[in-house]
Fold these 3 entries.
Entry 1:
Amino acid sequence: MEITKPTLVVDLKIAEQNIKRMAEKFTQKGIQFRPHFKTHQSHFIGELYRKFGITKCTVSSVGMASYFAKNEWTDITIAFPANLLEIKEMNALAEQIQLQILVDSLEKVKILSEGISPKISLFIEIDTGYFRSGILWEELTQIEEVIRAIEAVPQFAFVGFLSHTGNTYSQPKVEDVLSLFDTSRRKMLDLKHYFIRDYQNLILSLGDTPAASLAIEFDGVDEMRPGNFVFYDVMQYLLGACKVENIAVAVYCPVVAKYPKRNQIVIYGGGVHLSKEKLKWKGKDIFGLVSIPDEQGFGRLISGAYVESLSQEHGLINMPSTEIDQINLGDLLAIYPIHSCMTVDLNIEMLSLDGSVISKYRTY
Amino acid sequence: MEITKPTLVVDLKIAEQNIKRMAEKFTQKGIQFRPHFKTHQSHFIGELYRKFGITKCTVSSVGMASYFAKNEWTDITIAFPANLLEIKEMNALAEQIQLQILVDSLEKVKILSEGISPKISLFIEIDTGYFRSGILWEELTQIEEVIRAIEAVPQFAFVGFLSHTGNTYSQPKVEDVLSLFDTSRRKMLDLKHYFIRDYQNLILSLGDTPAASLAIEFDGVDEMRPGNFVFYDVMQYLLGACKVENIAVAVYCPVVAKYPKRNQIVIYGGGVHLSKEKLKWKGKDIFGLVSIPDEQGFGRLISGAYVESLSQEHGLINMPSTEIDQINLGDLLAIYPIHSCMTVDLNIEMLSLDGSVISKYRTY
């Protein structure tokens, strides 16, 4: 594998282990596993899921749903507030596949009912306290109005309640993730109990990677939709949701300058390759962790080394003085991304460790 | 122009005015203007520069240099530490065009001299205090050694000293930008004075958008390489380097949810469309400013509205209560990006206001 410029590399063996672990966890619990494919956006990675019996997926846009529908995924949830400007595309999709979309207002149900003709399933998106999108879990009257509006439309089927507890990502500790997920799950469960008598088939769909990785108690949850876990990243590692050896993607970057006096190395690899996503680590902003790749894979993490700033194409690495001598101009370093969803999206191509190109949605 | 999902729109009239203003400024001062094309990465935008007599450009990667070389740009500087893994590509380019590359160590000059055969020009990159890449301006002995090493290689020509005062971007006020640029310019000028007797043709190449926009005094500077000014952005606007009406790019994003009780709107438009670049504004992190586009262009900025957070595809807008009623589901909002270089890079296509597709490097 000859790499000459910043290149996203996937360790498929690790990705497959991550999928296996998560698929087995939810199968054992009798919970439907509908993984989010926005992290990899790749038909090829999608195939790895089929090995474990997964046939349903989640995506974050109509375009991504169309890409996976073309690749024989026949049951897809677009876990994003339905975009009224893409009704034509949603109609085309709903003609072909079992499609679930999200609503959270009467107004949206009304406009969709006028534009969508094929059979389509609707989740009501519930906000359990993340305050991004969805109806607040406690607004029972509003929720009931929306259910009734959905049920009144012949081509619409009400599926249940869907929530994304995205605030687990910013929790400082494992116990905070668990406690937050549990609170959200209980709020959703109350909702289920309240409505189940009238809508006996309603399901609860939850799913964020930190909780899916760490939680044990999923009582009442019918479906989980984590996505990030397929590759994991530094954010999940530092949060405790994975080990460093579970991280399945890294950006290989050439070393283009060395400044031993200030313990810094410049790589060809900037915000356009890694994304400007950062997090606090030991009081500092970091944009990635660093390892030296070898024949087998990403290699060992260099203790104490981190990406301290990113320009468009430059990455500035802080490298401990004990390590800097072994790094030469023209070497490749593997940078573990802070947030793999963002990094993978940026890179038009991915390579596997054996150098094969893995195609993605945006190149499709 | 029918837009149904997040779309990068360019106001070509504004971009052309930005180019005209900057070209005239440097022409009047007798300074060579070699604009950085990493901001737009588009042959089509490159053509706008030719109207004002510009025939030389700057890029940030070998790939981008090849793209512009194919589009008849015959004099290109790659303003990035030369990447030893792309010597083959640099050779191919140097066979075709007048190519300038950057070095900042004896080691790099040595390795390049063994691999590069066509005539090529080398700048020594100087660090005047940004501490990213380059030899520190005060390291006269080291600089002289590198010049001698370059001069000893028959196919190499030493052009002069190049610096990027990237720390102007993070200055709080116009006077800080001016003072920082002036300090850097004087350091470079000292270097020029020191070496000019032995190397009479050496030039000084500087250029960052804040200083290029705001400074008046360029004594001793032979070449300027700003890039961002072609589109500008919220960062430059808040820094005082441009007016809001000089911003030439915005991402048009559909409104997908409204939460009037908490003065928030959700748009389809996230980190993958805008980039996670943020800045502090009135004590808050912001990821973009917001306007309502009309037939003529991006329209008026909504006072007090800003993008307060971004997920992969969601943007959460804080919208003053006095403004939220006029915004409906399915409307398009124009989001002015924090840093146009990053946002433009993310978007595979750009549209002009009349709906024509403007092709870019990554789609080439």
Entry 2:
Amino acid sequence: MAMKHNLKVESVLLPQGMQVDSRARQFSVRADEPKELGGTDTGPNPVELLLCALGACQCLTARFVARMKRMDLQEYRVELEGELDMEGFLKADGSIRPGLQAIRVRTYVKSAHPPEEVKALLAEVEKRCPVGDSILHGVPIEMSHEIVSP
Amino acid sequence: MAMKHNLKVESVLLPQGMQVDSRARQFSVRADEPKELGGTDTGPNPVELLLCALGACQCLTARFVARMKRMDLQEYRVELEGELDMEGFLKADGSIRPGLQAIRVRTYVKSAHPPEEVKALLAEVEKRCPVGDSILHGVPIEMSHEIVSP
């Protein structure tokens, strides 16, 4: 298995509204905004998708670590809450950030293993989770564009 | 419209495999891993979901800014590429980060407006995009847990 991966996604804004279809390999993910933000509410909004990515990554990292440690997880569930101040997005004057101000992650684990072993697993998840590390420490983003006239 | 939002998501690891279902309001998002990573390939992996969130947010921020500036976007499409070194996840010794090392975002715009106006729109998108700001600058993550014995 190659260690270095380039993951690729394409997102397309559908005509007129707030619907976006993103494609990752054979999968398609719809995003939209609720009606009160001008959308048609046919999918989670992008910030909710970001939290889905983090929750999913916490769970899959836990599965990976549990297999490695030969631990059984009877239940593994993550509740995530993201704090967003829309004023940062709307004003965009730099006084309030447009992104999330904080994320709270609460993990519920049911396991027959002693709590100390479960805590050690949780510490591994926190350290290894790729999406968690990306969001907590940030990632350099390089932007480029191509503009075409009709 | 309230300015401060708490967005909530719940992610549940399904029994045995690498499938995770995340719920945001009425929406459900499946994540999985490809077979070579031990999954069943029924959905994008979490890092692909992170890129979907970023691509969708770029597109929706563009729609919002275009409406504000009364600009018409005939096409708006974003290609994203994320660089991941799986060794960071597997070794977890701190020498290589487990998260993305870089993200490249290439935006394709077709618009009847002069290129300078489109460039000004792109600059606004870069400044305002909530997911972009979250990933570029990072977000504090507060972790807590509850461990239950069966």
Entry 3:
Amino acid sequence: MGWVVDEEALERLAIGAGILGTGGGGNPYLGKLMARQFVREGARIAVVGAEEVPDDALVVSVGGMGSPTVSVERPRRADESVRAMRALERHLGRQFTHLAPSEIGGSNSTVPMVVAAQTGLPVIDGDGMGRAFPELQMETYAIDGVRPTPGALSNHHGHVVLFDRIDDATTLERYARAVTIQMGGAAGYAFPVMSGTELKRSVIRGTLSLAIRLGGTILAARERHEDVIAAALGVTGGRRLFTGKVVDVERRLLGGFARGKVTIEGLGADEGRTVAIDFQNENLIARTADGEVLAVVPDLICLVDAETAEPVTTELVRYGLRVAVLGIPAPAALRTETALRVIGPAAFGYGDVEYRALPGVYGKGQPTSRGARP
Amino acid sequence: MGWVVDEEALERLAIGAGILGTGGGGNPYLGKLMARQFVREGARIAVVGAEEVPDDALVVSVGGMGSPTVSVERPRRADESVRAMRALERHLGRQFTHLAPSEIGGSNSTVPMVVAAQTGLPVIDGDGMGRAFPELQMETYAIDGVRPTPGALSNHHGHVVLFDRIDDATTLERYARAVTIQMGGAAGYAFPVMSGTELKRSVIRGTLSLAIRLGGTILAARERHEDVIAAALGVTGGRRLFTGKVVDVERRLLGGFARGKVTIEGLGADEGRTVAIDFQNENLIARTADGEVLAVVPDLICLVDAETAEPVTTELVRYGLRVAVLGIPAPAALRTETALRVIGPAAFGYGDVEYRALPGVYGKGQPTSRGARP
């Protein structure tokens, strides 16, 4: 029971994925434009639910690696991840049957669309993060023990770097990041490779349709002049943590990551309070001036424009913006003890912060398990 | 008309390759020990002259990449380059027929012996540098247009990184160096791949037998209490530039390279004069206090112990050593206009120094073209 990502769905996806990027994950706008161009030229982007993937399918996850700041300045070519995928097929001597999104938040939400449009392969309605994270070992595929290699990187020159016989995703992350920096800061990747069985054991289901529905709901609420924030939360679950004005942004590039802090002064009901959000590409922790933790990774901390719910990414956030801070509970797969070791507060340097889950259910407004058309 | 590298030849090779390393290239001692162990266990290291390689041979160059300083602290495993070679064979779906040394100076002189001992493949009597250089694009294989990829790196964990569709060796150098650093500072490599025709067009002939004969001549001269320096120069060609005492060594690790300067105060006939030698892994330029250039890259500037002609590498040179500075003319292939653009003074940051060849002929004491037994 597949469905198709058309132009309208791409518009919605870009907005929804921007919010689920929790400030990072790169800008989905360029990928949307590329995918749209292919769709206009007649390409078909087919989506299937995870349950429809045969056990013996040969699935590959595709995306882009690199600093979001660099990506805005020099858009990726549309075919870098395709080249990586084709190189990996040549290396394996086998052809892939399905594409698995690695990261539904940010630009990596649209990369599989671009690859699907060029290759005709179906995209699975799901991903390995349910949001955005900065590193490969933070995918559920890795957390659940899928072997990280063989895998491939390619860049806009068509250079190919293949990785093999590497057992842990953290090592692959280091190697691939080092090559990406040498490639000029941006590359397309194809890894990990999974069987259908492995995919179904590990993928976070329904996140592609969730992102599309989230974007569609926001667009509809804007048109009807309804409360866009409430409409968005009606899809994702979670709650509004804070509303205010950005009064300070610290930002620096370090080791290929954008790191920094956004400070927001409360408005309306939050008048008189201040919240600071630390980010490393993605927003990691939101704390009040007196140290109360409003939300912490892996839960989603999303900055959106207070009027339009347009996502505000860490590379574009600036003084004076009026924003709402949304707290969205992470998917259940990210809240297990095993997962928290890799993507909990301590993994990001907040060893003194205990993870306490936000109330609510991720993607509460949707049937996540069947990959139904959004 | 091949010949065999036996235990005695390995001893000689380590000394000769140490001198041809011109201060860098890593220490051939550990490779010698590994190769010797295999020989003692019955392995046979066969050498063939370049002319004996069929046009349709599938040749691969093997060696180790990494900082010499790291190599001394943590010896490479004997099988890293073998793993890289085997990974490349799997990737190509073809098997190699011959091994080509990439660099006769330093530790990369013995890596092909270790690989030959484990695989049974013959080693070609020649290399791509005729000395040691810090980077891949400085091989005659690259200078003569051999495609740098496909190629492979492997480390002591057995991790494999393959490179493909990269057209220039400088780019491969950057990618491979970045991965090597992430691999812990040392890796074995297998690249470039060449046909027999390409090999014969590009290899510097007879350098393996030259290094062995150089080491053998020095050992014999020591035994007979003859002038070891004169004996060494009788094999390599070139002349003694300076004799003195090391009075200062500046050394730092930068970007994976050992960089610095050695200052030597003259003794005997050179009393009252001072010479400074800049190095980046290898010795690059020898200049007197008043700026006269005694020798400059690509000519070989070799520090040896004044009494024994034992090579003194940049990582081991220290205050108080009495050394002779030898100037050995570079092989003709390194002195062409094309080659000088890649390995002349300007390529190493000495844009104001014009290359003027040392008088004499490299390897003057030997028939270099036939790969005869040394």
